[in-house]
Design a protein that fits this description.
Blueprint (H helix, E strand, L loop, with lengths): L5 E7 L3 H12 L4 E5 L12 H6 L1 H19 L15 H25 L3 E10 L3 E6 L4 E11 L3 E3 L12 E2 L1 H4 L8 E5 L3 H12 L3 E5 L11 H14 L2 E3 L3 E8 L2 E8 L2 E7 L1 E4 L3 E3 L32 E3 L10 H15 L13 E3 L4 E6 L2 H7 L3 E7 L4 H5 L6 E7 L5 E8 L2 H13 L4 H5 L10 H10 L9
Parallel strand pairs: 1-2, 1-5, 2-3, 5-16, 7-14, 8-9, 8-14, 9-10
Antiparallel strand pairs: 3-4, 4-5, 6-15, 11-12, 12-13, 17-18, 18-21, 19-20, 20-21
Pfam families: Pyr_redox_2, Pyr_redox_dim
Organism: Rhodanobacter caeni
Keywords: Cytoplasm, Disulfide bond, FAD, Flavoprotein, NAD, Oxidoreductase, Redox-active center
């Protein structure tokens, strides 16, 4: 391959945003290259970024496996099914996750091959004039060029200065997916998506889990009514969530990690065997940009872009976790594909107002659009309808009748402004609401659509009816 091979599009980063951008660009007939440095356990390139390697996919695999084990003791007896002395073979438990990861990272590689995308194994650095310097994992260097460069470098976990990752006692999300034994005591810093999901995995397997959250409110990003139900259920499961608690010190000693934190009652101490730090993620741009590219970073280290993900430098775009907006894989998917379409002269589009959020705990939590508090603060007139899963036949038959669907519509136009859910299968139920919101639908539109019976989706139907005080299966 020549020293200065020319492409139409070079994508730096093979995570969700990057590989979607590369595949879509190739589909549109653009000569495309993608650079990614993620190394799999076999020492080979593992496309898919954090999401496929140590994020979305492996965490869901462990959540599902741990749920099966939890159900044996806690949910099967009510069905008249008893199992004695159930055990977890952690090697198989983790091994299943590894197989799934390899299947999907390998799947992306096959898609690259099928779409004739040139894949480079290493890190990419943007140079002036849309050239990209590639540093291979063996230290070798080469430079390629393109008409358009898409920066999709992703994000990394935020590290606390007084609780630095050591990979053994103080771990990040990747470390929490690789434990070789169930810790007796697991500390989690941060009651966000990662902390709650991975805390749930190890709690179900028997760990004593304490979650320390600095904010005074639980799940402040979610609707307050939904967060309240979720907090109650997590407490029942044994997740000890301490709010308004700020970690000040974490010291590794022979008997575990010694934590010092402050809450409303003053200084508190806690000893855990493992400490998962999950206080958020930050844009990863280390070594990504030469000094003279003209690409700017904001005060949080994110790449500055406009509404079309363009950096202001001719032919340079940026997508995914490295730019503004929620750090969600599916947000990155859409930005990557939209940029490829804009480059090809087509009409790309990303609707940021209706991006769904999901937390894959038990019960699941999902929402899209505005919360009631946001609308109140903005002075928008609204009306609310809600419906409990306790009155849904399918949920009761499944023995998963916890939670509710809450729908918020404009008080005058009835347009759906937000839908918030906690309960069984809500990661899937939210999609119907996103479609309705995308098409500027009203609560009456959903209320008048026939929903199959018995299904969990009837909770959405009844919540829509409840907006106008006409739910059938509850008092309005």
């Amino acid at each position: 391959m020549s020293e200065q091979e020319q492409f139409d599009v070079i994508v730096i980063g093979g995570g969700p945003a990057g590989y979607h951008a590369a595949i879509r660009a190739a589909q549109l007939g653009l000569k495309t290259a993608c650079i990614d440095a993620w190394v799999g356990k076999d020492g080979k390139q593992a496309l898919g970024g954090t999401c496929l390697n140590v994020g979305c996919i492996p965490s869901k695999a462990l959540l599902d496996s741990s749920k099966q084990f939890y159900n044996i003791a806690h949910n099967l007896p009510v069905h008249g099914i008893s199992v004695e002395n159930a055990k977890v073979d952690l090697k198989t438990f983790i091994g299943r996750k590894e197989k799934i990861v390899k299947q999907f990272t390998g799947g992306v590689a096959q898609l690259f091959k099928a779409n004739k995308i040139t894949s480079y194994f290493g890190t990419g650095k943007l140079l002036k004039g849309n050239q990209v310097e590639i540093t291979g994992n063996d230290g070798s260097k080469q430079t390629i060029a393109a008409t358009n460069v898409i920066l999709a470098s992703g994000s990394v976990p935020i590290e606390l200065p007084f609780a630095k990752f050591d990979g053994k006692h103080i771990i990040d999300n990747a470390g929490a997916l690789e434990l070789d034994a169930v810790p007796k005591r697991l500390g989690v810093i941060g009651a966000g998506v990662i902390g709650l999901e991975l805390g749930s995995v190890w709690r179900r397997l028997g760990a004593e889990v304490t979650v320390i959250e600095a904010l005074p409110e639980f799940l402040a990003a979610a609707d307050a009514d939904i967060a309240k139900v979720a907090a109650r259920e997590f407490a029942k499961q044994g997740l000890d969530i301490k709010l308004n608690a700020k970690l000040g010190k974490a010291e590794v000693k022979k008997d575990g990690v010694h934590l010092v934190y402050t809450d409303k009652d003053g200084e508190q101490k806690l000893v855990v065997d493992k400490l998962l730090v999950a206080v958020g993620r930050r844009a990863y741009t280390a070594g990504l940009l030469a000094d003279d590219t003209g690409v700017k970073l904001d005060e949080r280290g994110r790449i500055v872009v406009d509404e079309h993900c363009h950096t202001g430098v001719d032919g340079v775009w940026a997508v995914g976790d490295a730019v503004r907006g929620p750090m969600l894989a599916h947000k990155g998917f859409e930005e990557g594909m939209a940029v490829a379409e804009w480059i090809a002269g087509k009409a790309g589009h990303v609707s940021y107002d209706t991006i769904p959020w999901v937390i894959y705990t038990e019960p699941e939590i999902a929402w899209a659009g505005k919360t009631e508090k946001q609308l109140k603060d903005e002075g928008v007139p609204y009306k609310v309808g809600s419906f409990p899963f306790a009155a849904i036949g399918r949920a009761v038959a499944m023995n998963e009748a916890v939670g509710q669907v809450k729908m918020i519509a404009h008080a005058e136009t009835d347009r759906i402004l937000g839908v918030h859910m906690v309960g069984p299968g809500v990661s899937e139920l939210i999609a119907e609401c996103v479609v309705a919101m995308e098409f500027k639908g009203s609560s009456e539109d959903l209320a008048r659509i026939v929903h199959a019976h018995p299904t969990l989706s009837e909770a959405v139907h009844e919540a829509a009816l409840s907006v106008d005080k006409r739910a059938i299966h509850k008092g309005n």
